[in-house]
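Worked example 3 (structure in, sequence out).
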């Protein structure tokens, strides 16, 4: 069977959350408008802004968010005042969300704390900001960094996000989608799930063994849509701690082929859609064939939170909720 890859639009509807921030910063720099980038570099507890949350701001506009509320308002106003005064050095500002904290009170009482990079952008930062936007626009993978001693800089090789605090602080953030979801089976539920997951910052790939499948052709939410034999899934699906896989093929037999291919695949999440009866029968058949019980116990099946979902859209919501729970450590 031929391998087909349906290209997605260049300006993809499922773009990383940060793309509008970088586009605003780039447009402002091109126009000669003073602009700054605010980015959460560390968070803990019930902080409203998590690591990687960011916004760009000018004297009249903001795009993005570092958590909202009075904290965000105060820091935006601070940076607008600084932009009026001219260039100044980057700064890391600690914000504590407790009313009785002796220092660094944010004005919020949700508990937790966060550290925020206040980075005024200079005309010399245009090329790096532009490259960040290009990377995200084309769903590439790279990283950007800033530190006490350097300006904004693009790192061409992807690396995990990390922050080193202190006087010589250093922050590196991966660009693009950290988490990747592969949907095996391109039918109606896959289309509905792709639509939901496109809002949740996952890179999306949909695989099916049927060429010219109508629901696959209509799926413009996925970044990659490929026609592949299910017997080759182990070679098609990436491995790693940020890889999530859901199996929802057209029937029982193809589900079994997919499970056999991916059962020992080291991924963060492996789920199988189906009724309780179908899942029980399939697992019994796999046990009888001698498959490893510990590996079978890795399978989330039936997938999705138990909300009595019936339609493809309801099933998609339940599966998305379970993926969020796994990603967030639930």
């Amino acid at each position: 069977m031929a391998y087909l890859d349906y290209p997605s639009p260049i300006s993809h509807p499922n773009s990383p959350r940060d793309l509008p921030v970088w586009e605003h910063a780039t447009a402002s720099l091109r126009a000669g408008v003073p602009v700054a980038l605010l980015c959460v570099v560390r968070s803990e507890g019930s902080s409203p802004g998590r690591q990687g949350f960011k916004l760009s701001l000018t004297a009249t506009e903001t795009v993005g968010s570092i958590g909202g509320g009075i904290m965000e308002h105060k820091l935006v106003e601070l940076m607008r005042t600084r932009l009026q005064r001219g260039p100044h050095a980057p700064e890391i500002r600690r914000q504590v969300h407790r009313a009785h904290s002796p220092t660094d009170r944010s004005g919020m009482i949700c508990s937790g704390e966060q550290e925020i990079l206040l980075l005024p952008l200079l005309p010399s930062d245009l090329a790096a900001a532009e490259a960040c936007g290009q990377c995200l626009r084309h769903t590439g993978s790279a990283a950007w960094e800033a530190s006490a001693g350097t300006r904004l800089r693009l790192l061409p090789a992807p690396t995990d996000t990390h922050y080193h605090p202190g006087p010589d602080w250093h922050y590196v953030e991966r660009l693009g989608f950290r988490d990747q979801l592969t949907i095996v089976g391109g039918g109606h539920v896959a289309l509905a799930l792709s639509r939901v997951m496109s809002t949740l910052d996952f890179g999306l790939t949909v695989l099916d063994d049927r060429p010219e499948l109508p629901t696959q052709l209509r799926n413009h939410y996925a970044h990659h849509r490929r026609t592949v034999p299910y017997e080759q899934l182990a070679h098609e699906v990436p491995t790693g701690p940020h890889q999530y896989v859901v199996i929802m093929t057209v029937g029982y037999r193809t589900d079994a082929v997919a499970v056999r291919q991916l059962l020992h695949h080291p991924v963060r999440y492996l789920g199988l859609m189906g009724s309780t009866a179908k899942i029980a029968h399939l697992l019994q058949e796999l046990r009888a064939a001698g498959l490893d019980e510990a590996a079978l116990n890795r399978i989330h099946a039936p997938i999705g939170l138990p909300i009595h979902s019936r339609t493809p859209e309801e099933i998609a919501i339940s599966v998305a909720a379970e993926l969020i729970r796994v990603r967030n450590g639930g």
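Notes: The chain has a mean pLDDT of 89. The radius of gyration is 23 Å.
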